Amino acid sequence: MRWASAVGRQLTELAILTTAREMDQPYEWSLHEMEALSVGADSAVVDAVRNRKPTTGLGEKETIIIQIGREIFGTHKLSATTYASALKLFGQANLVDIVDLMGQYAGTATRLTAFNQHMPPQMKQFLPVPFSLPDDIHPDTRSRLPLVSSQNQNPQASPILYSRSLEPEGTGPGLIARHGAGLKSLEASVGRRLMDLAILVTAREYDEQFDWSINQLAAQEDGLEPAIIEIVRERKPLSGLGEKEALIVKFGRELFGQHFVTAETYARALDVFGERDLVDFVALMAQHSSDDTVLIAFDQHLPAGQKPLLPDLKSGTR
């Protein structure tokens, strides 16, 4: 979808940039701004996304991709008008690919933000963000995670300019993945109940009815207490929750609500869950961030007869 899409590299990079902008993710933005310009993206289009300017005067396809991202990540719904215009411009298959690409990079942004990935000191950060990034990072990785070298690392190899390997070794999603053990390991360590809670927090922060309603039922079967579900659903204060439960909710609210996790929240989560499980919890949230992007775009309704369990959300329009 990224490298060989029929819509071309300029538009796929624009989809990634729009996602990074709406999630205030400076590492993802900065690498992809360089890549977008290298494949011929119009600097005026990049500037409009970076600075959230009106799309007046931009091309029709560029305008609709930017609008899709702004609506999905900004309002958690995609209007019937925007959807119809996008479908007419791109066709069904290409539109699915564009949205899926946005979903994948929403998941990547989730991981990068959770672990506070900074740009290497020799590389410029191009994205203005409305907050100061916490400084709780390792100097070699420029993130909250220590360096773990890739088994395939070749220190003599030169990076291929404007490709994924432009990502500096020891930084980014590749580094993050090396610290996790996968969801089976997470389930064995913490159980389905806390995993379900992380899923519900993500669905709540995306206002995603389908993801919430299906997983609330699963969470209840796995023993997640109704009082905890209500706190997440109604966005109530965390008083009365156990430490693990409160940390998962607080971590998710900061991650998706303010687009950074404070040093204090991260340090406590690391102490309580350990590095491996925390990486895997974030991976689970990232997967549902990706899923929710797609579910919102295509207005996925619940199965017939299934009661919506998340209140006061938009009704389907397509």
% residues in beta strands: under 5%
Give me the CATH superfamily of the largest domain.
AhpD-like
Main sheet record: none
Total helices: the number is 13
CATH class of the largest domain: Mainly Alpha
The tally of strands reads 0
Query: So, CATH architecture of the largest domain?
Result: Up-down Bundle
Order of helices and strands: HHHHHHHHHHHHH
Distance between the termini: 25 Å
Helical residue percent band: 55-70%
Task: From the alpha carbons, calculate the radius of gyration and give it in angstroms.
Answer: 20 Å
Briefly note the structural class of the backbone: mainly alpha
Name the overall outline. Answer: globular
Low-confidence parts, pLDDT < 50 over ≥5 residues? 153-163
Q: What do the pLDDT scores average to?
A: 92
**The CATH topology of the largest domain:** AhpD-like
Number of domains: 2
Could you list some keywords that capture this structure?
318 residues; mainly alpha; AhpD-like; 2 domains; 13 helices
